TrEMBL record:
Keywords: Dioxygenase, Oxidoreductase. This is Phytanoyl-CoA dioxygenase family protein. It comes from Paenibacillus spongiae. One of its GO terms (molecular function) is dioxygenase activity. The keyword Oxidoreductase applies. The lineage of its organism: Bacteria, Bacillati, Bacillota, Bacilli, Bacillales.
Length: 326
């Protein structure tokens, strides 16, 4: 079937600069300031507030008690996963066209939306030790990427993310249990298992030592509406919110190239040998199965005319060493 990626033009389309692309490839992360406007951030934040305060019911959590104290609320929930499967606003945020514009440039053209996580991190809560996201979400070939959307200003005090720039060049350190989280471990001469990945205890978490080999480990302070894109091999972490009166709300979503095979469904079962059919095609096309948005969020997929020849250039090497267009 003839298919060439076609960029959909919109007046607010975000165009990635070559320097931004190179920064992402070199350092393993990229912050795009003000990718979401304040209206969109408020939509996500109001929704997060509704969930946190119990006005919007969340499956799997205790029913709302209007008398709950701040301490009871924060003990009730610090983060919620996969909300895009049952909440229209979560699906809208996951498939936000400006996020997809950047993803199309960094891992596209074909983009599959896999996962969503809403972090509340009220005062005193949250924090996740050093880890690599590809340890948790498997994509073959590995094309996983995270998009960390700041729903309010984040800094060292309220628990922003920290990254080890360049650590995206590390392999994924596998689970102690073989075959659970990484491919081809036998292809490596020595690949020590990740012990206690994500633990806040740096002595227990073996990835702390890998991160410490990097010359700088930096915090990533952000303004509400900024988005941090980060490579799935990048070592990153966060600390608990140290403030007494500020939340650290973030909406964090994961994507991969839609041509990757994804034997993953957030720990849930799936039919057959891959979960691709459960994940939403957000841009482009794929030869693999995929899902459509459940709540009708619009995605820009190309209309393919099977009768139209592919638009790609075909080149041929000439005897004099030059390339000629056919
Ligand atoms: O936001 C956080 O505290 C941790 C997020 C994170 O590490 C991730 O999404 O992989």
């Amino acid at each position: 079937m003839p298919y060439m990626p076609q960029v959909v033009t919109r007046p607010d389309r975000y165009r990635v600069h070559a320097d931004q692309y190179a920064h992402y490839q070199r350092e393993g992360y990229l912050v795009v300031p003000s990718l979401l406007n304040q209206t969109d951030v408020e939509t996500l934040r109001d929704w997060a507030d509704g969930l946190y305060n119990g006005q919007i019911p969340v499956g799997g959590h205790d029913p709302y008690d209007p008398e709950m104290s701040a301490a009871e609320k924060s003990a009730r929930v610090t983060r919620i996963h996969m909300l895009h499967r049952n909440q229209p606003v979560a699906e809208w945020g996951l498939l936000h066209p400006r996020l997809l514009d950047v993803l199309e440039a960094l891992i596209g053209p074909d983009v599959l939306a896999l996962q969503s996580m809403l972090f509340f991190n009220p005062p005193g809560m949250g924090g996740q030790g050093w880890h690599q996201d590809a340890y948790y979400i498997t994509t073959y070939p590995e094309t996983l990427i995270g998009a960390w959307i700041a729903l309010e200003d984040v800094d060292i005090e309220n628990g922003c993310l920290w990254v080890a720039p360049g650590s995206s060049n590390e392999p994924v350190y596998p689970d102690a249990e073989p075959f659970q989280s990484v491919h081809a471990t036998e292809a490596f001469d020595s690949l020590p298992p990740a012990r206690n990945a994500s633990s806040l205890d740096d002595e227990a978490n073996s990835l702390s030592k890998v991160a410490a080999r990097y010359p700088e480990i930096i915090p990533v302070p952000m303004k509400a509406g900024d988005v941090l894109f980060f490579h799935s091999h990048l070592l990153h972490r966060s600390y608990p919110n140290k403030t007494k009166d500020r939340f650290r709300r973030a909406y964090v979503c994961h994507y991969c190239n839609a041509r990757s095979w994804v034997p993953w469904n957030h720990g849930e079962s799936y039919e057959g040998d891959s979960g691709n059919y459960l994940h939403i095609l957000a841009r482009g096309q794929t030869h693999l199965p995929y899902a459509a948005p459940a709540f009708g969020t619009k995605v820009d997929l190309p209309v393919i005319d099977p009768g139209k020849p592919a638009a790609g250039k075909r080149m041929m090497a000439m005897p004099d060493g030059q390339m000629m267009e056919m």
